[in-house]
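Q: Here's a chain of 114 amino acids. Please give me its 3D structure as tokens.
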Amino acid sequence: MELINRSAIIVVPAQPFLDWLHQVDPTSSQLTLADLRREPAIYLVAECESKDEALDGLRGGISRIFEEQLDGWYRVPAAWPKERDRRTFLRWFECSFHSVIFDLGTDRLQHERS
């Protein structure tokens, strides 16, 4: 087991995200917040000491994360909200911060660009 030099932000949809999804996609009417939160996204960030510091470190990445989350549930960019800044992001998603990340794997880490 190795401690790695990263922190993590776990991102889960909040009620405004679900409200938007129900509005743009009639087939989603049976989905609940619990359904959307079943498999949260985990983003590794540079090592830092607080959630605010981690979010500050994301800067332009918040828009990318926002778009990735939207695309995961509804793939029509024209229906996505126009405002995808930090303030909107923090209303639409709940984020938890984790400063200690252990790697329990024995194989080499691989990186893929998205």
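Q: Can you summarize the key feature?
A: The chain has a mean pLDDT of 93.
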